[in-house]
Amino acid sequence: METPVDPLGLSASGWEAVLESWGEPRYRGRQIFESLHRHRRRDYALALELPAALRARLAAEMPIRLPEIVRREESRDGSVKYGMRLSDGALIEAVFMPGFRSFSEANEFEDARAPDAGPLPIETGESAVRRPARGSTDPQERFTICVSSQTGCAVDCAFCVTGRLGGGRNLLAGEIIGEIDAVLSDVGRSPEGLRVVFMGMGEPFLNPDAVMAALDVLQEVLPARRVTVSTSGITPAFERFAARERRPNLAVSLNAADSEIRASIMPIERSYPLAGVLAAMRAWPLESHRRITVEYVLIAGVNDAPADADRLVRLLAGMRVKVNAIPLNEDPTYLPGWKRPSEPAIDRFAERLTRDGVPVTVRRSRGPDTSAACGQLKGRTEDPRRRSR
Ligand code: SAH
Ligand code: SF4
């Protein structure tokens, strides 16, 4: 199969290699990379530092295709969920979350216990394509973009809308960078203050080539610690990511503290059992001041009992982790029968971890009113199961 042209996904050294193969000086490669990612120009014609003939060749042989924003839904809290169409027509979603210090600090325990403000307004129709409120004018203010790494997810977790809708293709590195780019342009921000989390559609560790290439590009404009990659525990891929000189933060979706419960909600447990996932986490070379995030979707009657919390504490003993408990985002259409625990059950679970010295945050999902929440991203507007019926 022919390698797809992926200009936005090329690192500086990748560009240097391309230019060398074209018989051009290597430094031109760095110039092109800088033009694309530091100056954020999306048209080679604007790179006046390059000879005209080279600009023309780039336009002809390395065309830049950005994802097209086809849907935009803004939540009252300022989060914006974007539907994007890739160049082959595949649909994905990305989410902009303003003003948070980091994704894990965004949803402090206290937030989850705040009185429910009731349903939030949803913008639909014409208002949905209105531009969102511009980000803060303070360039220091942090914000997060949640990106998709695949157009679906074959891991098939029972509680995840993306998973219920089935597998998709891998994104190219440039498509991942393109998602970030499209959101930045839409909200009028530069990468200043940006955090990136791979928590959108797909399993990043099942698309390691493109995710690693995207990390290579990102790390030239962002410190590695501002990027978090979340995996359902694809054990063989840990080593590759661990071997990086500059590693992103690692988040692992355990979602259960014993193998049997995990297997009942995550079929991947049969291929990559909990014990192996924990061993891979222990082997992860953790920088000082960092912790591995353990994601734990709280599902009523499945994994939210005090005994589950106690088991989780035992499982994580001696590991530098923080637990991000995520009360299930319900979806009666795609996740019928799965329920979010009651607020007291959520509190009880989190308090149990805290009592035993395990740091925990309870994630108040961003943008639940627009289904921008974790595990709610679908990309498609149609349920393929309906078609097959
Ligand atoms: N595939 C990767 C990253 C994308 S999913 C992973 O599983 O880690 C990102 C997070 O959303 C995961 O922690 C997952 O457990 C969580 N999630 C999925 N469906 C959810 C739902 N319905 N409610 C709350 N969190 C959910
Ligand atoms: Fe895939 Fe993550 Fe959803 Fe599981 S939770 S189906 S791994 S996207």
What report would you give on this structure?
The structure is a single chain. The protein has helices at about 10-20, 25-40, 50-60, 110-115, 125-130, 160-165, 175-185, 210-220, 235-240, 260-265, 275-285, 305-315, 345-355, 385-389; strands at about 70-75, 80-85, 90-100, 145, 195-200, 225-230, 250-255, 290-300, 320-325, 360. The chain is α/β, with parallel strands linked by helices. A 10-stranded mixed beta sheet has the order 1-2-3-4-5-6-7-8-9-10. Strand 9 (about 320-325), helix 13 (about 345-355) and strand 10 (about 360) form a beta-alpha-beta unit. It starts with 11 loop residues before the first helix and ends with a helix.
Name the descriptors.
elongated, single chain, binds iron/sulfur cluster, binds S-adenosyl-L-homocysteine, disordered C terminus, alpha/beta
Order of helices and strands: HHHEEEHHEHHEHEHEHHEHEHEH
Distance between the termini: 33 Å
Which strand-content bin applies to the residues? 5-15%
Q: Ions, cofactors, ligands: which are bound? A: S-adenosyl-L-homocysteine, iron/sulfur cluster
Largest sheet: 10 strands, mixed
Strand order of the largest sheet: 1-2-3-4-5-6-7-8-9-10
Helical residue percent band: 25-40%
Shape call: elongated
Q: Quickly count the helices.
A: 14
The tally of strands reads 10
Unreliable stretches (pLDDT < 50, length at least 5) are 101-136, 381-389
Rg calculated over all Cα atoms: 21 Å
